[in-house]
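Internal QA ticket QA-208
Title: Verify multi-chain structure generation after dependency bump
Assignee: T.L.

Test input:
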Amino acid sequence: MAHFVTGAAGFIGSTLVDHLLTTGVEVVGYDNFSAGRREFLADALMNPLFSLVEGDLLDRAGLEAAMRRRYIDSVFHLAANADIRKGTADPSRDIEQNTIGTFNVLEAMRTTGIRRIAFASSSAVYGDAALIPTPENVAMPIQISLYGASKAAGESLISAYCECFDFRSWIFRFVSVLGERYTHGHVFDFVKQLRQDEAKLVVLGDGRQRKSYMHVHDCVNAIMLAMEKTGNKTNIFNLGLNDYVEVRQSVAWITDRMGVTPRLQFTGGSRGWVGDSAFVWLDPAQIFALGWRPKVTIEQAVCRTVDWLQANAWALARD
Amino acid sequence: MAHFVTGAAGFIGSTLVDHLLTTGVEVVGYDNFSAGRREFLADALMNPLFSLVEGDLLDRAGLEAAMRRRYIDSVFHLAANADIRKGTADPSRDIEQNTIGTFNVLEAMRTTGIRRIAFASSSAVYGDAALIPTPENVAMPIQISLYGASKAAGESLISAYCECFDFRSWIFRFVSVLGERYTHGHVFDFVKQLRQDEAKLVVLGDGRQRKSYMHVHDCVNAIMLAMEKTGNKTNIFNLGLNDYVEVRQSVAWITDRMGVTPRLQFTGGSRGWVGDSAFVWLDPAQIFALGWRPKVTIEQAVCRTVDWLQANAWALARD
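Actual output:
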């Protein structure tokens, strides 16, 4: 038995691959290396249980061929265009990578007889959430970003496949994930800026945005627990800490950790960018009810991310 | 000033075209004639205010070129794969025609500077609704059909374009629409069967499915009223009568109207097909609050549809 991981060379994907390999199962990784990094698979590639297929989600035949390499139990579909801010510059990125890509994964699964899928969705599907902390069954939201829309579309397709083709799905709405191998987001941007000029830090918005975060190991543990403990057709979980932090607080942690005292320059406005949510805090009651408890606080997750970026400056070279 | 109608040769599209032309505006119609019928545009094609472009939603360049033919105020995006039942036979139909097609419409609008869109969505986006009658802000549903998923994805994309690119949208979640030029659905199927053999009628499911309906003229009037009276970024309305009918009742109206007494044969099960909702009744409070009142009851709509199909048997030739 093997598992199939799309986005296997990404931040969360490679961490999941490493975890799955520790359990002794075979893993087939699929990645187009648009954002993924071969360095993250250094350990996996030395493990005989792991095989890697370099391919794109838009190549459905390639996906199918990769899924036929082993007897696949579950697909962990993590590959996506994960940069929310770039959606408006090229709207086709989100629809192609996140919506059509998800459709292709589902079709490849259907034609190869695989029926279990875990999907990395996002708090972005809640738009400007009507209720905070936001439960999974909040009122139907209005989408405010192409990224959120493309993830919501992916969720819709997955649940329809569960009903129409007897799939089982686990849909995880992540808050922002931090930790080792982190490759984009505000901590990445801030550390990168401060390494170039420790005297100044440009912060998008007014710095009052409030966001929830979680560490990547807590994220992977939650995914595994939910798939072990639940078995409805479609199982939807918020994944995040029952906590949030203001950007200004995060800036303080990062600058303290780096030992710098930059002048802060705010670009202004309540949102970091068009389609940004100014307040993200998901209600994690459902995953807590399964017994999951995070081990890393938001402050610890921010600091560990800073430490890793400082120790792996090569990762900052690409944005 | 002109309006642009996708699916202009369809049941609802051609009725909308005729209505718009009575108001004295120019109309550009776009249709690939996969389901649309040239006969429905017979009047429009004689009107100098109307022009028709034969093209597919998947041809984005063709869409753009068609939108550049006039100064377009609003796009009425009605083109879709509307046959819910066929989704499982070929999943790509719904995703291509309804999701990618909607994305192409949005992109063509963005590049040509058009910013107002009315979208024919569906009660199917509610899946098996958690609350009946179902209000627009019901809890986030789980999709049960590829059609519903593809329409939900279209809605998500549209609202994201409103936020990111300053569009205005009117999203209409229709119940099943009946009336003159009706080309698919249970009344179509039943009349077609009974004209071939008036002694027997096969009814999908147990006949206890409860569905809401509305007449196409009431539908078009509601669309025009909502666009006139509301102007939020994204405006979402249920469109349907505050009433529903059991399939068995509808069968009685149809057979009475046709003067036949067939033996009924039920295929069994609570749903008509995989992905069917056994009970659809939308809360129309929001469109009622704007002053809309339907003029045709469900019984009248069913009977008028039977009469039209009987008088236009050519329309039954294609499914």
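Spot checks passed. Residues 159 and 234 of chain B are 6 Å apart (CA to CA).
Status: verified.
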